[in-house]
Amino acid sequence: MELVSTPLLPEGFKVPASRWTPATQILRHRLESQPYVFAPGVFDPHGAELVMYHGFDAVYLSGYSVAMGHLGTTDMDLYASVEIADVARRVVSALRKFQLTMAVGDPAQGVPPRHLEIPPVVADMDVGYGNVFNVQRTTELYVTAGVAGAHLEDQVMPKRCGHIAGKALVPASEFIAKLRMMRAVADDLGRQDFVIIARTDAVSATEAPESKRGLDLAVERGLRYLDSGIPDLLWCEFPTAERGPTEWFHEEIRKRFPEARFAFNYSSSFKWFNEPDPLTWEELAEMGVRFIFITLAAQHAMARGMNQLLEALHRHRHEGYIELQRREWEEGQPTRSHHQFSGVPYHHLMGEQLGSSRFGRQVDLGLEEAKVV
């Protein structure tokens, strides 16, 4: 890893040189050079920072997660393009800032710098939040936010989560027009390498202009989308975790497009633990899947952790929280010191270098270090 200086760090501290490589290029390189790219699904900047801390290939910003995490509602077009685009903007910005804070470490506490690569962000664009010109606006918001890629789906508006009944499809020609608009906007903004993922919900849609239904319709649509020459990846949303339909879809597509590359949602909606022979990521890669993600990964993990804490507080009051802290420090969780993780040492060092008051050596907390985080 090549390390270089930046004006945003005090003298002597460095960041990976890849900081200035466009995220679109990083994502494309990983898609082409790795068996697959995996991205945990998140809904906020802090979750994205943890994904980055643990060194994952990419960050996936899930629309369902944004609906739950920011609005407390479901994935039925109940948020607008500007809302999710703003979350995407804040996630990208947070990752760039997090790289700086980790590169400083905490000199006062003897915590060494940690040099982290910034993972590219892939975002949910749902159905584009309207017609082709809504797609134009949304794509511009995503590209200028620094998002590396996005997926668009062929449902009508208002759409539904791929695992909620009652889905209907727009004509394939209308969807292809939206894909073309995505490509045109990205190219116009100089991001010809922006990754476009075409998603079809045809397998479980109940309404569509075609007479076919189910997997046959999904294959027909997938072939038409690839015929357009626009998508970098094709994603079929499956209603279950069954192995057979997944294998058949990818086999049928590759009969015409042997080099086709796919995205796959290792969906939180499926009870993978009940599958007798669950698909592995290596098996998916053999089918041509290059981008694997779990839509609600962070949402379920956050909810589980919060439930455990709240139950402990309800039953044991203060002892419940003390036990949480004890586990954090004994297990060495990276977030055990929220000041260090959020970058307080960086702000003090950089503030001092810039000559701003109330930072650096001018600050005397007057607290015993052993008693504070």
Annotated CATH homologous superfamily = Phosphoenolpyruvate-binding domains
Strand arrangement within the widest β-sheet reads: 3-4-5-6-7-8-9-10
Structural class: alpha/beta
Question: Which architecture per CATH?
Answer: Alpha-Beta Barrel
CATH class term: Alpha Beta
Q: What is the radius of gyration computed over CA atoms, rounded to a whole number of angstroms?
A: 23 Å
Strand content bin: 5-15%
CATH topology: TIM Barrel
Give the integer mean of the pLDDT values.
Answer: 93
Number of strands: 10
Distance between the termini: 30 Å
Helicity level, as a percent range? 40-55%
Q: What is the helix/strand order?
A: EEHEHEHHEHEHEHEHEHEHHHH
Number of domains: 1
Instruction: Give the low-pLDDT segments.
Output: none
How would you sum up the global shape?
globular
Number of helices: 13
**Which sheet architecture does the biggest sheet show?**
8 strands, parallel, barrel
